[in-house]
Structure formats: structure tokens, C-alpha cells
Specification:
37% strand, transmembrane helix, membrane, transmembrane, alpha+beta, elongated
């Protein structure tokens, strides 16, 4: 009987220790330089519907169902999607726009798991009519899901999608 209690206690202590040491936050971002002036690049990026042209997730499910609420390019615009297992079910809402600087959005995922993240697409001039675009997202790992993050590298997994998307964006804007 005591052995069972000790085993249960050890599992509980292990769970608590893992929850304490596991990452509480995540952040992923990638950048690329586009050979176009900043205002032109920003004007394209502030419209969420344009992501359909360069998003790696749209390529993973070109038949996903989409719904749009509000005026694209304005705070409050919401893009909703319902796709296959690679893209899931969720929505993206523009929460803040700083003209010729950044577009901030709230990502809400409902399937395959529930989570919320803050997304940012920012631009900066790097000279000679070139623009650096940084695309990323960040969020909080709640207990107990943060324990899973000890085994799952968000940056490695999602970072390659961001790189693919930015490469597509560069190709679109430069041609």
C-alpha cells in the first residue's frame, strides 16, 4: 500500500517539477529582405487576404473553407478558416496597425488544439529601396501543456513554414 502511495507521490512531484521548468512562453519569427520600397511592401502586407498568395498553410490546404468579417486592412478585420489536419480550425484578427511599420493580429486556434497567439508582421527600410520583413508569433504555454513543450520545438517546427512563406512573399513582390 505504501509503495503505491510513494509512486503516486513521485508522479505528482515529477509533474510539478516538469511544469515549473518547462517553457512558459514561445516566440518564433523569421525575416527576409525584399527588393521593393517599404511603403509598397507594407501596403501588400496589411491586407490579410493577400496571405492566401504566400502563406504556407494555404498551400497545405488550398480547399480550406474561409470566411471574412469586416474590412481587410483595418483593425477588427477577422479571417476565419476551417481546413484539413495540417491547418486546423481558427481565426486571425487584426488588432493594431502602425502604418509602414507593423500589423499585429490575434491568432485563435480551435482545432486540432485550442491556443491563442499574438502575430506580428513588421517592416523596416534597409536601404537602396529594400525592405526587411519580419513575420512571427508568440504566446504563453499554460500548465500542463507547457510540459509538452519540453519535447516539441515550436521554433524548429513552425520556423520552416515561416521561411517558406517569406520566400513566397519575396517571389511575389519582386516579380
Amino acid at each position: 500500500m505504501y509503495i503505491v502511495l510513494y509512486v503516486i507521490l513521485a508522479i505528482v512531484v515529477l509533474f510539478i517539477l516538469l511544469a515549473l521548468i518547462a517553457p512558459k512562453k514561445y516566440q518564433v519569427n523569421r525575416s527576409i529582405v525584399i527588393n521593393k520600397p517599404l511603403p509598397e511592401v507594407f501596403q501588400y502586407l496589411k491586407y490579410i487576404k493577400n496571405q492566401d498568395n504566400w502563406s504556407p498553410w494555404k498551400k497545405k490546404d488550398p480547399d480550406m473553407k474561409q470566411e471574412f468579417v469586416g474590412n481587410d486592412g483595418d483593425v477588427g478585420f477577422i479571417a476565419k478558416w476551417d481546413g484539413n489536419k495540417d491547418v486546423g480550425l481558427g481565426e486571425q484578427e487584426i488588432t493594431h496597425i502602425v502604418e509602414n511599420d507593423r500589423v499585429e493580429a490575434r491568432l485563435r486556434f480551435f482545432k486540432p488544439w485550442k491556443s491563442e497567439s499574438d502575430a506580428v508582421t513588421s517592416v523596416e527600410t534597409v536601404g537602396n529601396g529594400k525592405t526587411k520583413v519580419t513575420w512571427g508569433f508568440s504566446g504563453i504555454n499554460k500548465i500542463p501543456t507547457n510540459i509538452f513543450m519540453l519535447l516539441y520545438n515550436v521554433d524548429k517546427h513552425v520556423g520552416k513554414d515561416f521561411e517558406e512563406g517569406l520566400a513566397s512573399l519575396k517571389e511575389i513582390l519582386e516579380h
